[in-house]
């Protein structure tokens, strides 16, 4: 008798984006021709940098010639790209070996797949509000989840507590959805907790390129002791606009071992068993991201999103509304005015101001009275949305 993975029955239905889409479609049907200003999307709006497009085209041409054609790629990534990404870290004084970098098809894939490395008995701590995939991946794996709530009072940046009982620690900084960024001292407290317990930090660094403040860590491996207590997962989706192109990378230091087993070696075996590597063409494009010209161009795009965030923050400042994020992060986490819950505020913004955001309730119970605004929209739309938000 075939038995399904019954853990799927434990998943809570995710109505967040379904309900957003349903409400928006109903509004558009009732008021045809009315423009909506979409500040909820977590997708980028600017095209890929010219340097990346040029490299992608070169990759396509390579595949058209027998002399330069590439079939299956190394499962852990092209050696040249692994070396380039490791060099990107070393350029920030973070010593990473080439063979400690694993190229993937995106951070979302890795955040779920990485759980293969750990026994099911290992409990996962999820700092909430949280990216929903952390919870869902752990539920699918049949793993115990320890929910660590945060709040306005601690800026949605918690410290580990003595009674915290977890083995895997999901930390996202800059955070999605709150935009909060861990300081060096606070991240050191988490590394020290992991050290004392023997736990492992799963550090989601997907938004590291938005950090401008040099006092803030962009990698967990900037913290002493992290190489034996952390794995870092990163992505080019927001850094370089690869949301539709798909490429990320995972860093697993060779010092990270438990019970005589190397997680670096285990992940190598996992990838060579479960994947056939990322497309040569996409990896070719990714190589261009890390060139001097590629870095210049992607930072031009990042500056557009950063300026969008400043525009939205200015509007909320004028409206006298509490928020965190926006600085060093692409998301702004605002408190709903007048005691509204996040879905009531969604309806209010949509119907009264034609602005669409993301209700905080979709990220866990801690988000019930908060609302996420994204800086990834078209700059003209952001300017108009900000003008409307000032009326709050």
Structure, described:
By secondary structure, this protein is an alpha/beta fold. Helix 4 (107-113) packs parallel to helix 5 (132-140) and helix 10 (292-319) packs parallel to helix 12. The strands form four sheets. The chain has a seven-stranded mixed sheet, with helices on both faces. The protein has a four-stranded antiparallel sheet with strand order 11-12-15-14. Strands 1-13 form a two-stranded parallel sheet. 38% of the residues lie in helices and 15% in strands. It folds into two domains: 11-40 and 293-389, Alpha-Beta Complex (Aspartate Aminotransferase, domain 1), CATH 3.90.1150.10; 50-289, 3-Layer(aba) Sandwich (Aspartate Aminotransferase, domain 2), CATH 3.40.640.10.
What would a concise description of this structure say?
This protein is α/β, with parallel strands linked by helices and 392 residues long. It has helices spanning 16-30, 50-63, 79-90, 107-113, 132-140, 184-197, 237-240, 263-274, 280-289, 292-319, 342-353, 379-389; strands at 37-38, 101-104, 124-128, 145-149, 168-172, 200-204, 230-235, 248-251, 257-258, 261-262, 323-325, 331-335, 355-356, 358-359, 370-374.
List key phrases describing it.
single chain, 392 residues, alpha/beta, Aspartate Aminotransferase, domain 1, Aspartate Aminotransferase, domain 2, 2 domains, globular
């Amino acid at each position: 008798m075939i038995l399904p993975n019954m853990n799927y029955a434990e998943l809570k239905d995710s109505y967040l984006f379904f309900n957003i889409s349903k409400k928006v479609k109903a509004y558009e049907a009732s008021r045809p021709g009315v423009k909506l200003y979409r500040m909820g999307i977590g997708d980028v709006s600017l095209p890929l940098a010219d340097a990346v497009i040029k490299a992608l085209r070169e990759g396509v041409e390579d595949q058209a010639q027998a002399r330069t054609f590439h079939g299956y790629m190394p499962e852990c990534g092209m050696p040249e790209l692994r070396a380039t990404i490791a060099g990107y870290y070393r350029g920030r004084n973070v010593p990473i070996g080439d063979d400690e970098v694993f190229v993937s098809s995106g951070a979302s894939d890795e955040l779920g797949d990485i759980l293969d490395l750990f026994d099911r008995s290992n409990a996962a701590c999820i700092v909430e509000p949280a990216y929903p995939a952390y919870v869902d991946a752990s539920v699918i794996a049949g793993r115990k989840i320890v929910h660590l709530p945060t709040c306005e009072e601690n800026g949605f940046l918690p410290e580990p507590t003595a009674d915290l009982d977890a083995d895997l620690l999901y930390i996202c900084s800059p955070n999605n959805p709150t935009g909060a960024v861990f300081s060096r001292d606070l991240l050191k407290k988490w590394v020290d907790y992991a050290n004392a317990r023997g736990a492992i930090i799963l550090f989601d660094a997907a938004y590291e390129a938005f950090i401008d403040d040099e006092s803030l860590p962009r990698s967990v491996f900037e913290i002493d002791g992290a190489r034996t207590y952390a794995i870092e997962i990163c992505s080019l989706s927001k850094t370089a606009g690869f949301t539709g192109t798909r490429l990320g990378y995972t860093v697993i230091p060779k010092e990270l071992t438990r019970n005589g087993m190397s997680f670096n070696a285990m992940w190598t075996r996992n990838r060579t068993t479960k994947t056939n590597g990322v497309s040569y063409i996409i990896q070719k494009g990714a190589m261009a991201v890390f060139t001097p010209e590629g870095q210049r161009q992607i930072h031009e795009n990042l500056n557009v999103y950063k300026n969008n965030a400043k525009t939205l923050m200015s509007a909320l400042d004028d409206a006298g509304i509490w928020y965190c994020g926006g600085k060093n992060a692409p998301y702004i986490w605002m408190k709903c005015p007048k005691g509204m819950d996040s879905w009531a505020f969604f309806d209010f913004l949509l119907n009264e101001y034609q602005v669409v955001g993301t209700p905080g309730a979709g990220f866990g119970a801690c988000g019930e009275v908060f609302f996420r605004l994204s800086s990834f929209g078209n700059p003209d739309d952001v300017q108009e949305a900000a003008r409307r938000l000032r009326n709050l």
